[in-house]
């Protein structure tokens, strides 16, 4: 079997609200270089990268004097775009994944179908609306834009928890591991894993 080409992509997105350069490699080693104005998102993206064994570089500046919304949303958009491009025609991938991750008292579940049909379901109720200066509603915004731009079906369920930081951390770890599993190459898969013949 021929050696698998490294699956990676880069994007630059500049608007009146944000200026982002992002490179994402599906076949990585868990390395991240993150420069954003949102420290909590840096932390979550680092966890996502490490547990997914991806490589991720983000250089993002945004209008955080207003709030973090535009920066978080646009990073989700860029990550989704690079994921979709990096996967190409999706030949040989497992396609599906279902991962549970505990973080102390919290338990999160992420279910993925690399389907070319963007859909997002989110079930999470956090005890606090803030983690430090980070607004927890931005987790949903990030994940929805990621799913939309990557054209994946993404279900995220936080089953329970008491500490908001732990609950969100479990989500990002589960996201990394589920995406790693769904995009991994299965040598038994011939072509695209769909009866349609295309994803």
TrEMBL record:
Signal peptide: none annotated. One of its GO terms (biological process) is L-histidine biosynthetic process. Coiled coil: none annotated. Pathway: Amino-acid biosynthesis; L-histidine biosynthesis; L-histidine from 5-phospho-alpha-D-ribose 1-diphosphate: step 6/9. It comes from the Bacteria. It is an enzyme of class 4 (lyase). Pfam families: IGPD. It is found in: Cytoplasm. Keywords: Amino-acid biosynthesis, Cytoplasm, Histidine biosynthesis, Lyase. It catalyses: D-erythro-1-(imidazol-4-yl)glycerol 3-phosphate = 3-(imidazol-4-yl)-2-oxopropyl phosphate + H2O. Its EC number is 4.2.1.19. One of its GO terms (cellular component) is cytoplasm. GO terms for molecular function: imidazoleglycerol-phosphate dehydratase activity. PANTHER family: IMIDAZOLEGLYCEROL-PHOSPHATE DEHYDRATASE, IMIDAZOLEGLYCEROL-PHOSPHATE DEHYDRATASE HIS7. Belongs to the imidazoleglycerol-phosphate dehydratase family. This is Imidazoleglycerol-phosphate dehydratase. It comes from Paenibacillus nanensis. The gene is hisB.
